[in-house]
Structure to design on (135 residues):
């Protein structure tokens, strides 16, 4: 429990400086939120780090080949014994497509345009599959 608490506190300290994050890091953080729904923190962290190590959390790479990216993310999540691998891989790819291609924007722009945290959350919930108000 203490280990999880320290990790959350560490991540919370980092979240205050999101303006300094490169776009790819913001996308990774969003994916960690998607992966964190309905699974333990440890399982989500492990799966997210695995995808990151494999280079599968780069929005531009996902956009270059949506179908292949979805397959690779799904396989990688299954390799990690992550539950809901198929739906989460679908959410990740659809989120990348919606944010970067359909809406032709970026996460940083979405966050900067928001008047406050509630508005930013609302925009993310509406545009990112697998994100709810609890994430």
């Amino acid at each position: 429990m203490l280990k999880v608490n320290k990790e959350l506190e560490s991540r919370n300290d980092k979240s205050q400086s999101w303006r300094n994050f490169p776009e790819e890091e913001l996308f990774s953080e969003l994916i960690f939120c998607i992966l964190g729904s309905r699974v333990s923190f440890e399982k989500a962290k492990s799966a997210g780090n695995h995808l990151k190590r494999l280079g599968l959390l780069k929005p531009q790479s996902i956009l270059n080949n949506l179908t292949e990216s979805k397959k690779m993310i799904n396989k990688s999540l299954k390799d990690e014994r992550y539950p809901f691998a198929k739906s989460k891989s679908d959410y990740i790819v659809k989120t990348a497509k919606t944010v970067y291609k359909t809406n032709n924007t970026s996460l940083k722009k979405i966050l900067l345009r928001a008047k406050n945290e509630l508005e930013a959350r609302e925009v993310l919930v509406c545009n990112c599959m697998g994100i709810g108000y609890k994430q």
About this structure: The chain has a mean pLDDT of 89. The chain is about 70% helix and 0% strand. The radius of gyration is 14 Å. Helices lie at 2-15, 23-35, 41-53, 59-64, 66-79, 85-102, 107-113, 117-127.
